[in-house]
Amino acid sequence: MSLNIPAELLPRDGRFGCGPAKVRPEALQALAGRGASWMGTSHRKAPVKDVVGRIRSGLATLYDAPDGYEVALGNGGSTQFWDIASFALVERRASVGVFGEFTHKFAAALARTPWLDEPAVTRVEPGTVALPAPADADAYAWAHNETSTGAAAPVHRIGEADPGALTLIDATSAAGALPVDLAGTDAYYFAPQKAFSSDGGLWFAFLSPAAIERTGRLTAERWVPDSLNLQLALDNSRSDQTLNTPALATLFLMAEQIDWLLAAGGLPHAARRCGASSGHLYGWADAHPLASPFVAQPYRSPVVGTIDFDPQVDAAALAATLRANGIVDVEPYRSLGRNQLRIGMFPAVDPADVEALTACIDWVLERTV
Description:
Blueprint: H1 25-33, H2 46-62, E1 70-75, H3 77-88, E2 94-98, H4 101-112, E3 120-123, E4 139-143, E5 145-146, E6 151-152, E7 166-170, E8 187-190, E9 202-207, H5 209-221, H6 230-237, H7 248-264, H8 266-287, E10 291-293, E11 304-309, H9 315-324, E12 340-344, H10 351-368
Parallel strand pairs: 2-3, 2-4, 4-7, 7-8
Antiparallel strand pairs: 1-9, 5-6, 8-9, 10-11, 11-12
Helix pairs in contact: 1-7, 2-7, 7-8, 8-10
């Protein structure tokens, strides 16, 4: 049956997607205003290069990047960075922690790479976290936040690993929201369509001096396509540009989001804002007779919340009803196959809208269960 949720219950903004995630209206207005004459200009010239420089310096400030760490960027998104890593960061073998779809995909990409040994894989079922085990490996890889399941992992070097091994962290749904000590990583890479409130198609990475050294060495020794050549990307990044034409609107929106985060208090502010949203969501689910958080403590993500429902609740029908009322993109990750909702709570999402979302879910359940 068709249900019309009362207007006074609805969130002011009904976007709760996990990527592309909500873009702040103020950033879109800036794009339509200041960006109108900027779009369609050369990415090799000062106006665009100035924005790339603003992003690179803004990221370094946001993360208090350690001495010697550099921000690189290129086209293709985080998925492309997995292939880049197989050419330029993994020398012989990686050890990977797999606890969801995206950590699995990186492990699979490494396993398909013909010049690398089969990766060591530490795997758990979705809903918790697995860090890679110490192994005969020169790189250790996992995700800071598994977007498919809403599980957040600690970030630190693997204690018994070779001191020369690199630590590679997929931060696609964590960057811009979760605090991290970059000194515990060598490549902290991400795309801008989640917490950075922009669009997809680009990758960014903080690279340590050790990662930069290995990149230079491996790309000199191996044949590497230009589009996957991390050294080439780094050389271009140092000139505040990309190898080939980037998506200008994506760069503009990301720069606006970084400025907004810095003005509001940086990563501590972002973490508090996401914590307010997720604290309400998990508290609501813990107390609800028909709902429960999917991810076990202490791994519940503050930016991606996955909520399981009792079998008497049809979560797909619930999501469809919410969508019909302007509350969108709360469906679960497609391959999990669970009776759940997945809710993005990135910094651009107002915590008050998360409170309104749960009130709307309550209203629908009262009338359908």
